[in-house]
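PROTEIN DATA CARD
Card holder: UspA domain-containing protein
Chain length: 169
Origin: Gossypium raimondii
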Amino acid sequence: MRVIVGIDESDESLYALQWTVNNLFNGPINSAAGGERNLLTLVHVHQPSKHYGVGPSAFPAGPGVAAYPSTALVDSVRKSQEQISARILSRALEMCDNKMKAETLILEGNPKDKLCEISEEMKVDLLIVGNRGLGRIQRAFLGSVSDYCAHYAKCPVLIVKPPKEMAGQ
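Structure generated from the sequence above:
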């Protein structure tokens, strides 16, 4: 069985991973897969650097003035994003604790789109995402990765809700 868990910096996504480890990957080997272990892919998607429409990488510096960041600044921001992503996935990988075969993947883009795309590309059996418990109005304005994936992913989607004491923190 091939499973993707969407991971971000939220406690809810880490809870979804913990639930996955405890409930789906407790058996040592999947006999239906010819003796191969199940594969868990931990996916973190970070947003690309913001573009402001003035130029390919320009940002407003005052009324009618556009500034262009240096290549060094752009590289520094990209490196910082990669380090943050690596830290998030390292923490998540520790939770797997050698209980299953796990790999990590860092993508750039809109998390809801990228999770659906990669789950289709990798032909996964199950996509698992956490749920922040947004209210109806927050979901309308902010969007919901779990809601989007449930509607548009080409594979089954499991949305893991956090326990009540964790919700709304």
